Amino acid sequence: MVIMITLGELAEKLGGVVKGDDNCQISSLSTLTDAESGQIAFLANAKYRPYLETTKASAVIVSEANAKYCQTNALVLANPYLGFALVAQLLDTTPKAANDIAASAVISADATVGEGVCIGANAVIESGVTLGDNVIIGANCFVGKDAIIKNGSQLWSNVSIYHRVEIGRDCLIQANTVIGSDGFGYANDQGNWVKIPQLGAVIIGDNVEIGACTTIDRGALENTIIESNVIIDNQVQIAHNVKLGAGTAIAGCTVIAGSTTIGQNCTIAGLVAINGHISVADGSVLTGMTMVTKSIKEAGIYSSGMPSLPNKEWRKNASRYKHLDDMYKKMAELEKAITDLKNK
């Protein structure tokens, strides 16, 4: 399916200004370098401005400051990157995870199913489940007992929602994600691990997006809580009783241990590891591969990952690291000797 829209219609929907032909027909998006006739590109980074002279795009989304450099039709917006996102939504042709209710879906007789719900092939909806209006459940999904999925939320294929999990309005959960699995709770009895039943649930707010193959564990006693407008990438592990504040973004392969509270509007890059039973202040930024072992009490940018080096240099540094304590002691001795000399 191809969506056609004029540049003038885009400007009206996005509150922008057209410089050029209002009737220019747009069918899809592309980059400045790869765009062809009928496509719209965008300029959000000034270093790509020279490509405005050579792009074959029918139109480009630009700021007012860059509009004068554009050699084709322009859609002028205050925030071109946001404009790109909104135009992408208008031209999106991604299919729904399901259409109608498949004959092979298994739906408990006492489940509550709202208006306009679609459930894909072989999905299982268990006893006591509540599905709000326009919820979409993809093929092979499992929704456990007494779970609640509110209006407009969509699950792609093979998502597992355990019992008593609550998912808010207009959430999007990508394939193979698991929400509400047991937290990693065990007591040790003289070398034998004794399982602690995880009695809490997972409560997810509105407008939350969760990537593929991510796991969010249920709480041990209280709930794991994901507040509204959180975005979580693929292959993220969120342990039991974690609380994620509204507006926080988490990139792929990050791990958050149990009972940790992440503040609002935090940005957590990929491969970050966050210890359990700590807190991270609102607005904090953790760069890639950061290891957080204690609470962060003030917003800021925090890093600890080791950048790559040529192997020979890395091995040399790694060897020296083993002698770091000896080097510290020698340095302290030298500093003391210098101080003693100065005091003579």
- Read across the widest sheet, the strand sequence of neighbours is 8-11-14-17-20-25-28-31-34-37
CATH topology of the largest domain: UDP N-Acetylglucosamine Acyltransferase, domain 1
What share of the residues does DSSP label as strand, in percent? 25-35%
Distance between the termini: 87 Å
Low-confidence stretches: none
Number of strands: 38
At CATH level 2, the architecture of the largest domain is 3 Solenoid
Q: In the CATH hierarchy, what is the class of the largest domain?
A: Mainly Beta
What is the approximate shape? flat
The largest sheet is: 10 strands, parallel
How many domains is the backbone divided into?
A: 3
Mean pLDDT across every amino acid position? 96
Number of helices: 5
Looking at CATH, the homologous superfamily of the largest domain is Hexapeptide repeat proteins
How large is the radius of gyration? 26 Å
User: How much helix is in the residues?
Assistant: 10-25%
Structural class: alpha/beta
